[in-house]
Amino acid sequence: MSDATAPAFTPLRSVLYMPASNAKAVEKAKTLPVDGVIFDLEDAVAPDAKPAAREAAAAAVASGAYGRRTLTIRVNGLGTAWHDDDVVAAAQAGPAGIVVPKVNNAGEVRRLVAAIEKAGAPDHTRLWAMVETPEAIFEVRDLAAADERLAVLVMGTNDLVKELYATHVPGRAPLQTALSLSVLAARAAGVAILDGVYNDVKDVDGFLAEAVQGAEMGFDGKTLVHPGQVAGANETFAPSAQAVEDARAVQAAWEAGDGSGVVTLNGKMIEALHVESARRTLSIHEAITALEAERG
Ligand SMILES: CC(C)(COP(=O)(O)OP(=O)(O)OC[C@H]1O[C@@H](n2cnc3c(N)ncnc32)[C@H](O)[C@@H]1OP(=O)(O)O)[C@@H](O)C(=O)NCCC(=O)NCCSC(=O)C[C@H](O)C(=O)O
Ligand SMILES: [Mg+2]
């Protein structure tokens, strides 16, 4: 895709789940500096509250009251009693994304896209597939590339830990294979990927350590469960002031070079690939600066 046709970069540093049945949380999201919101109809909503939550999520998306936040609805999974009605309501509300939990393979992606389109979703409503089962990890490369309407992979680390009979531990060693394969699949398919949630909402240091790990692995952002996690995610997944300064220096050194294909900056070799990374850093920085200026 050429630069002229590439869609504008949308920051997804901080993407906050909230039960769509929790009116206070749904209201509060309008005031939080989050890049994205997931109105949840799945795990965080009790069975008898699901129909009302579905209506509340659709109304929130239709309200136009969330400014430049990327709005999504997480429906209940394929094969559940609520899935079909959730998909129809979400598709008709037209959020940026319909988040589907426990997507296992490329066939399910195609089935979901067909259902979303049959329900009349606008073109801007993309599929966000959750990767949170052992089968999805084995299938993730094909799953990520299955359809152009799939825009984002979302790690479901609680379900993965449950399915693997693993344990939540600092450093997430039991999840490393799954996390790495998923990042590789997202990059190979050219889709975004969000890291899983950190459950201990009072453990600020633990949250930040996990966010830094996710950013270092290449995730675009982190899914969150509490407003107290938003600022840390925004800072961790944005290029630092030093990274922006370095990127500008790389670009300037390249432009001042003799066109031979290699220059040095402070003794370090710079080639075209480093300039490409520098340009990516600067375009992310510009998109975040514009978003934050608009948010005020
Ligand atoms: C975890 C919580 C239940 C804690 O809620 P609470 O006890 O109300 O927290 P606080 O008193 O500290 O809240 C302070 C204020 O912030 C608002 N709040 C809290 N959480 C949210 C939120 N997520 N979004 C918006 N606003 C929120 C409170 O209302 C307070 O407001 P105010 O009184 O005006 O100051 C709660 O945080 C929560 O429900 N979190 C989200 C849970 C959720 O959605 N879970 C599902 C996704 S996680 C998952 O399973 C991912 C994946 O599938 C996997 O497998 O890993
Ligand atoms: Mg889950």
Structure in a nutshell:
The protein is α/β, with parallel strands linked by helices. Helices cover 47% and strands 16% of the residues. The radius of gyration is 20 Å and the shape is globular.
The general outline is: globular
Q: Which hetero compounds are present in the coordinates?
A: ligand LIB3CWND, magnesium ion
Number of helices: 11
Strand order of the largest sheet: 1-2-3-4-5-6-7-8
Helix vs. strand class:
alpha/beta
* Top CATH class of the largest domain: Alpha Beta
Could you describe the largest sheet, including whether it forms a barrel?
A: 8 strands, parallel, barrel
Proportion of beta-strand residues: 15-25%
In CATH terms, what is the architecture of the largest domain?
Alpha-Beta Barrel
The quaternary structure here is single chain
Give the radius of gyration: 20 Å
Poorly predicted sequence stretches spanning 5 or more consecutive residues: 1-7
Number of strands: 10
CATH superfamily (homologous) name of the largest domain: Phosphoenolpyruvate-binding domains
**Count of discrete structural domains:** 2
C-alpha end-to-end distance = 32 Å
SSE pattern: EHEHEHEHEHEHHEHEHHEEH
Helix content: 40-55%
Overall mean pLDDT = 96
